[in-house]
Structure formats: C-alpha cells, structure tokens
Amino acid sequence: MIQPSMLCGRRIRSFSSIWIPRSLLLLLVGTSIVVPDIYQPFLDYIYDYLRHTSLFTASTFETWWTVIVYAIIEVSYTHRFGRNPQLRLANRITKRNASSKPIPKMQRPKHRVKEGLTYISPLLLLDLTLIKKYSGVPVQDMASSGNYDLSSVAKTIHGTFLAPTLHNFTLASPLQTHRALPAAPPTSRELALQLITSLFIYDTLFFVFHLALHHPKFASIHSHHHNHREINPQITNQLDIFERLGLVLLANFSLNIIGSHVLTRTIFVLIFVWLLVDIHSGMDLEWSYDKILPKGWASGSKRHSIHHRSGNRYYAPFFNWCDDLLDWICKSRTKKGNRMAATESL
User: What is the DSSP string of 68-83?
Assistant: First the structure.
C-alpha cells in the first residue's frame, strides 16, 4: 500500500529535480544582466590570464577548443546512451522492453580519427590563412597579427569581418598563427545578452539552411546525416563537409554580426556543442535543456528525433518558434485551399 508520505516524497523530488537547474539558470542570467558588477572582478582576472597565454592567442585556439569540448561532451553522452537503454527514445516509441532493442553500431574514439581530421582540416586552413577580426580590436592590431606594414593599413585591411583578409604570407611569417584580442574583458551583462542573442540568430539562420538542405536539389548533401538506424550522440557530427562548414560559418556569423567579445565566443562553444549533442542524444534525459527552459520554448531531443524519423518537420535546432511559425503558415494555406475547393464545388 502506498503511504501518503511516499507520495509526498515523490512530489518533492519531482519538483526539486527540475527546479534546481532552472532556478540556478534564472539566478545566473538575472544577476549577470541586472547587477553585472558582482561578476566583474572574476571576469577581469580570468580574461587577463587568458589573453596573456600563447594558447588563447593562437589563431587555431577556437578550432581546438571546439574539438576538445565536443570530445568530452559527446563521449559522456555516448557512454550514458549505451549504459541506460531505458532512456533511449527508440525503446519508448516502439514500446519494447528497454533492453530488447539492440544498441546501434557505434564507433570507438580510436576509430574516429578520420572523422576528426575531416572536421579539423578545413577549419585549420581558414585559421592559418585569414586574419582574425574581433569587435573591440584596433585595425592596427589586426594588421600586425597578419604581418602587414602598419603604414598601409588603411589600404589593405578592413575592420569588418564581412571583408575577409588574407595573411601577408612571407618567409618570415608563412602562416597566420596569432590573433589580436580586445584589451578589456566584457561585462557579465554583455556576455549574457550576446550569448542569448547569438543563439537565437543561429537558430533562425540554421532553420533556413536546414530547410534548404531538405530540398530535393540538396538532399544528397544532408542524407548522410539521416543515414542511421537509431539517432544517438555520435550522429551529431555525422555530416557532409559542406553541411559541417555551413554549421560552423553560421555560428561564426551569428557571433560576429552582433560584435560578440572573444570571451563570449569561448563560452558560446561550450553551450553550442552541448545543445547540439543533447538534441542528437536519442535520450529522454531528466535535465535536458528543453525541460529546464519554459515549456514550449525549446525543441529538445524528442522533437529532433521526430525530425530524423520523418524528415518533413522540426527543422530548427534549439528553439520552437521558427517551426511553430512554419506549421502555422502551412495550416493556414491548407485551410485556405480547403475553403477555395469547397467554394468551387458549390
């Protein structure tokens, strides 16, 4: 017999479980925007330390940082996917015993070297040939990092990232190995608002890009990503090289178009990679971001698994608004068509 205390305990656990990360997120974002001064000493310290390290000032830092973050997050999700069949969405959809559906074939890290090289190579090529341009960095510093004569800066260097500039290749400086950084750190308010805005911009841009990839003309590019028996964390990076570059360049554009600080970009990589792996996890996790955010805001792994099964809906990666707008437009057109057909039949 179930005791009232047991029911009460279940309610408490259910309530506290989701409200822990939700409350912490609300507190962190709220205080970052409303009272940024409390975080400034920490931001001053951490950024001053980073900008004086050769690793952080290297032109290839963001590429290697993304690879390291992805490896840690994806491997942890893959381990959980293999050890917890009761969490797999495929088992819940088919209503089979949690242990009866075999785990899809997955590669061990040592067998994924080719995948890693395919991802890194084009990005390293860009890193080592183009000057890095960030908001808050004087053009003279950009020119110096690119091995240009400062007397001809106005004629050779454009401060906007929309005008890419090649490194001035010489025997003394054959590659772009250094990036010029802003002298001052951002405020926590700038960090929070830039992160939120860039994620929304990316979500909208990728929605359009993703919708185009499902057009018959581009289906061959995107089909590789949908070529699996069951969606799982390793599918996150199962991409054609064109699609992979599109994903990275759209993320880069979303940050640059609003003048994001370099430190914002570093934190963005953590959040961005986690969200990508989470929606491809193939699991119904208790603390997935779509459960932490208010209901109806985020797509999450459930919606994205539906997209991978059907391929004809839920194109936005992180949030629901673009997909909901598309559904509303399609339904409106259907209703309008039905009314016209009914009118013509009279």
Answer: HHHHHHHHHHHHHHHH
